[in-house]
Amino acid sequence: MKSHVETLRWEGASRGEPGFVRMIEQTLLPGQHVELSVRSVEEMVDAIYRLAIRGAPAIGIAAAYGVLLGMQTAQVEDGDDFLGRTGEVCATLAKARPTAVNLFWALERMQERARRDHARGATPDALLEGLFEEAFAIQREDAKQCQRMGELGAKFLRDGMVVLTHCNAGALATGGMGTALAPIYVAHGEGKKIAVYADETRPLLQGARLTAWELTQAGVEVTLITDNMTASVMQQGKIDAVFVGSDRIARNGDVCNKIGTYGVAVLARQHGIPFYVVAPLSTFDPQLASGAEIPIEERPGKEVTFGFGKRTAPEGVRVYNPAFDVTPAELVTAIVTEVGVIEGPTMERVEEALRRGGRI
Ligand code: MRU
Questions:
Q1: What CATH fold (topology level) applies to the domain 148-356?
Q2: Is 199 considered catalytic here?
Q3: Could you say which residues of the chain have pLDDT below 70?
Q4: Which of 129, 153, 166, 251 could, after both became Cys, cross-link 336 (CB 3.0–4.6 A)?
Q5: Top-level CATH class of 8-146?
Q6: Is 55 in the pocket of ligand 1 (CB under 6 A)?
Q7: 47 lines ligand 1 (CB under 6 A)
Q8: 3-state SS class at 324
């Protein structure tokens, strides 16, 4: 099934003008469905930081296109100069957000491509050509991986099931149909009736603004609840399974995702509900032995005190606003990746999947 939403795309150069990126301005959803043009590295950093584009795989694709924005008009003397400049552009893009490892994975992949081509003696023009190929491949592969994860994850969904999800891990967050929402789209496409409860996802409301919007567009039944209703909804026996995405998964299977995910996982365990994580291998960080090492982004307090377009807390109040949390592997029933399902994730099983996917 093809998703209705195209989150971002590269618009090729025309009439001597350089290419640029078109993306849905996600901060305006669901009120306005408009596209934003991003034409420079600085604009891309800003778009990622502001969450105009967000969700781990989409951030990775955006970063790869950011490299093209930086390099397509770069005046370079030779291949060495091209490599140096690419490194600088990547260093700037790497500062956009700290947690989703797809950002760093994509930047490393772009640089590795340039290094490889340079080692073969490619000219600056050929090096640029290589970067274009690599960025398009990253988006194309992501779409395929979403499809594959959707097929594998759909096996856990039977007709009539009700799924709870947190944040937005759908088409808006990827280059394809999504991660956590992909099994739901696939099952829906197979004619199974799957209903979804979407957590609102405080403070930036990705569940309310994005997941509820995206599922509605796709014709999937969705019920919105505030985050503090999850426990009660589970206690009432309304939820059969939880599906979430991830921003970074450590080698031991600890899963970092949007703040609030850990609470949902604890509640799922308490109520005997399976907790599935759906994420491509590009979201795994083979360098980190456990989730304790994952850098957690802290965002401005204003997102909490001014979240609904008006002041909801006294001026000057101290705010703690971590954007992500870590769910220990023991609370995860299975991680669905494009190379297979990791049931009851342990370091051994995660490493086996990473080896199969050529990540280690
Ligand atoms: O702050 P966001 O909106 O970028 O956070 C996104 C999430 O936490 C998603 O669940 C995660 O990136 C997986 S997206 C397929």
A1: Rossmann fold (3.40.50)
A2: no
A3: 1-4
A4: 153
A5: mainly alpha
A6: yes
A7: no
A8: strand
